[in-house]
Design a protein that fits this description.
mainly alpha; two-stranded antiparallel ribbon; 1% strand
Length: 494
């Protein structure tokens, strides 16, 4: 409790608070522009945090995370174009409300829902994280290896597209980690005679290439598209206490669903919003109104997608396992600052662990304030010519990567993975498993080798250690369930 209080004290200083404000604001702006995702923003910002204090760096990124998910509702409501996949469900009722002349009401519902969802999930984050971290300290190499395996399999099985494509993407990500020095025997592997590969492929060029540059290539195809003009007024952006009390059950239920889904490795805010929306619809006395501009639909979607952030941060800081792609990038940020993600954060670097918890709460409060007072002006960003944005972003990518590594090789790596990411998305192959495979592969390899050395080459602990066996069973079920569902579906069609 004392450490949590100390982290709040630190964040209330000028510079951390300024960075958090800037992070939330940029997240809202970028999240509101279709095509410029939160993932892209955080990835682009990583090089800038290289020379920053680690607490300030993670504070900035958490602010962007919160702002990006919340800001995506603007385009989803006004244009039926979700800024991020997390706001897809918001389009179902938010856009019809906007078409009915209720843009301000729809945005008011979304803003308040995001805030309440964030606050409730923060309570779970603050209460559950310390005891879970203590539990995780009892884990050995086999437990960590099976946790990584579980995260990869679950993400692959739940990603857009087929299970096979998800698994291939995860394997490709793990293979990309392999070039360089073998950590166990100290010999070079898969360098193909290139001296530049002897130190392996750096995290940032791969991440920025796969997410930012590939997104730029994707957006260039539709560079001339212009959204229709929509006006938003300042009046009516605040909900009354009567509205909050009336929808209190929906707020709490959707927050719990979002937090629970966020806890599961690799699922993400879009699944949380879908599950929450379908639950609200099935429990409603007026299910036929969903999809026509029904207020509970907006509440369910926006509450769940924002609360999933708090849920996803729990496994990140307690076990070092990403709950989403953005969380994988946050793990990358910790690694860049020579910090080991997982339960040891609470003992070796408590200022980071509790800084994440504090930044998430304050970030939600800042997000609410900015959205209420500035959403009218942020909405105008939707109409900035995309050609200018994409050119500036690509320039920042090149400058940022070169500045960090002082190497043109990293710039070429970034561009190559930009092309690879673009091709993968065109082939309906998800990028999430690829990136998480790349980020988690070093952890999986190190833990597996440690486990095998300790057991003299035996894999028996995989089945005899309770937690390791549980994670392994979940991995197998996650792998088999989509196959069973597909088989059952085909059987019915016959």
């Amino acid at each position: 409790m004392e450490q949590l209080f100390n982290s709040f004290q630190y964040l209330f200083q000028f510079w951390p608070m300024f960075l958090l404000f800037i992070g939330v604001f940029l997240g809202i702006v970028v999240g509101s522009i279709p095509g410029l995702t939160t993932t892209m923003l955080i990835t682009l910002t990583l090089p800038l945090t290289f020379f920053m204090d680690s607490v300030n760096a993670i504070t900035l990124l958490i602010g962007m995370y919160v702002g990006g998910i919340s800001g995506s509702q603007i385009a989803a409501t006004l244009l039926r174009m979700p800024g991020t996949p997390a706001s897809i469900m918001t389009t179902f009722d938010g856009y019809p409300m906007s078409q009915q002349g209720k843009s301000e009401r729809a945005l008011a519902l979304g803003i308040t829902s995001s805030f309440i969802g964030g606050i409730i999930s923060w309570l779970f984050l603050a209460i559950l994280s310390p005891p879970l971290a203590k539990l995780a300290l009892t884990f050995g190499p086999w437990e960590y290896f099976t946790m990584v395996l579980m995260a990869l399999v679950m993400l692959a099985s739940l990603s857009q597209g087929s299970l096979i494509k998800g698994l291939i993407a995860a394997c490709l990500g793990m293979m990309v980690h392999l070039p360089g020095v073998d950590p166990s025997i100290g010999q070079m592997r898969l360098t193909f005679g290139f001296e530049s590969l002897e130190s392996g492929l750096s995290l940032m060029p791969v991440l920025i290439g796969a997410f930012a540059v590939s997104q730029i290539f994707k957006d260039i195809i539709n560079i001339d598209s212009k959204p229709p003009a929509v006006s938003v007024k300042k009046k009516g952006l605040l909900l009354s206490f009567k509205d909050i009390r009336k929808n209190s059950v929906n707020f709490v239920r959707s927050s719990i669903i979002g937090t629970w889904v966020g806890l599961l490795p690799g699922i993400g805010a879009n699944i949380a919003a879908m599950l929450s929306y379908s639950t609200a619809k099935s429990s409603s006395k007026e299910p036929e109104k969903f999809g026509t501009g029904h207020e509970p639909g907006v509440i369910a979607a926006e509450t769940a997608n924002n609360s999933s952030i708090g849920g996803a941060l729990i496994p990140l800081i307690t076990m070092g396992i990403p709950g989403s792609v953005v969380d994988a990038i946050l793990i990358g940020a910790l690694i860049i600052h020579n910090l080991e993600p997982g339960p040891l954060l609470f003992t070796t670097n408590p200022e980071i662990a509790y800084g994440v918890i504090s930044a998430y709460l304050i970030g939600n409060i800042i997000m609410f304030g900015i959205m209420i007072f500035a959403v009218v002006y942020v909405a105008k960003v939707l109409y900035v010519p995309r050609a200018y944005l994409l050119a500036a972003i690509l320039l920042f990518c090149v400058i940022g990567i070169f500045a960090v590594g002082n190497s043109f090789f990293d710039v070429w790596v970034m561009m190559i993975f930009g092309v690879i990411g673009f091709i993968m998305e065109r082939a309906k192959m998800p990028l999430g498993p690829f990136v998480i495979g790349f980020v988690l592969s070093p952890i999986a390899e190190a833990q597996l080798r440690s486990g095998l050395m300790a057991s003299e080459g035996s894999i028996e602990p995989l089945f005899t250690r309770p937690f390791a066996a549980t994670f392994l069973v979940i991995s197998v079920l996650s792998l088999l369930w989509p196959l069973y569902s597909e088989w059952k579906k085909n059987k019915i069609l016959r």
